[in-house]
């Protein structure tokens, strides 16, 4: 498009002469169009307005800057060459505006060299379109970058009506909308394919006879497009010829409607094809063959670049021209394309080398490459270099367009198949993971149930055995005491020694049974947690322990105002065992001392019981809590080896932790926590 004459005026509203619109939907997008050419502004304005956008028009940089600060818009189309501004600088200013960082921005320029394009993209443009441009491509690309479909604002089925008669299009709209359908329209087959690619309607109604491509061709092309082939199509015609009906159905139409019939037939057949249409797989939708496409042409021949570009723009592609392989690779690194057309210049070795380099890059190697040459002899060499197709120059532009469409269609079909395979594999892996997790949960539940049953049996057995052992032990102990106390028949020294050993062993056995019963009680039963005065409870336990010490002088100290969240009976077991231990292991110390205290944050304190007694060998603290484990001999310090195991079990039941610190001969400290029940 050429630039307008000096003095062309832009507007912050639709140009004069634009038909007045009725109430506009609140969800319509707004596009800012900045170009000093009145022709370009009007061309883009009409294209965007026809697609449902509002438009704001600016003729120079000053008007654009005013719009940046004073207008709302979702898309900005900026000309790079303006009489009073540089479009790249305007882009920087736009990106610097608060809230404009993510505005979709398209640069439009006759400066279409690769270096200019890369400069614009690296500055922050979402798209760069060279002039001459295709207005349909610009609109479709903007819609694609927005990532939204304003025609799907509710759950209504969308129907695309393609007919060159505006009267018939409106007649179908008046028929369908009261029935709950959302209707969009297109005036030609080419526009209809682009609209279908952009909107992805649930159904298409297309006229059989139209200028350009007819309805049968529209349906054939949709059936060849991976993204559109499942959309049901109704074909309408004024013909009464049965052969025409068969021809249309064979072209891929789902239903055939004659315009002479009552329009109620359209509603009935539309409902039928929607009811029986194949359900879409819930996969990510692939790109459409008729959506906005970008083709990269590579040749050093400027004349041939122009010829290739003109041939491809007729199909609505945005054509990017690169003169060297280096420029092509630089552009591909910054922006993907749908197809690459390489022209054989001279011997063709340079083009084949470019093809090899493109195919070696993992990110772009799947892009189809078509090589264009003058002779059939080059075909095998080009395919061997990695090209996907070869076209003779003499075959003309229509052949090139057909090959480009075919390669893009093939690439999209392969991508769709790969995506479906990957999705199915992912779903199978997810299903396998769910099955494995379910089986694991069931196995774990069974094991937990069995473990709980065995624990109950073990506890019952332990309690029964402990209770049953008490009676015989009491009998043994009583008879031993009686024998030792008898004066009528004095015992020899050897017999007395043996009876004393029996009495002592019975006593140790009774202590062990009592310890096992305490451990069993600590391991089962419901926790009755409440806030405890730990200071008072500690003094009670100390009083009971001190009474059993037979007058030993032990210096006790307890921190004031200690509280804890726990089961009072079980917390008492903790204190009794740890204080008893402390007193026992200070038995050989001249000035025994036992301290009960706490440290750390008030909402999660660590309690401790510290003594200055015998301690334990460094590095063996973990052994203390194992059942029946002893780090000192029974002759040194008697005991059952169950007390600390019981303490460990009670602390764990409260969700806390316990550990010990000490050194042989230098006392020990037992730390434990009782977290609040959350």
Describe the 3D structure.
By secondary structure, this protein is of the alpha/beta class. Helix content is 46%, strand content 16%. The protein is built from 19 helices and 22 strands. The strands form 5 sheets. Strands 2-1-3-4-5 form a 5-stranded parallel beta sheet, with helices on both faces. A 5-stranded parallel beta sheet has the order 7-6-8-9-10, sandwiched between helices. Helix 13 links the parallel strand 13 (339-343) and strand 14 (369-373). Helix 1 packs across helix 5 (135-146) and helix 11 crosses helix 15. The longest helix is centred in the middle third of the chain and has 89 residues, at 397-485. The two termini are 72 Å apart.
Concise structural overview:
By secondary structure, the protein is α/β, with parallel strands linked by helices.
Q: What is the C-alpha radius of gyration, as a whole number of Å?
A: 45 Å
**3D shape:** elongated
What structural class is derived from the secondary structure elements?
Answer: alpha/beta
Give the strand content.
15-25%
Number of strands: 22
Number of helices: 19
Give a quick account of the main beta sheet: strands, pairing sense, barrel closure.
5 strands, parallel
Termini, distance in Å? 72 Å
Helix-residue proportion:
40-55%
Please give the order of strands in the largest beta sheet: 2-1-3-4-5
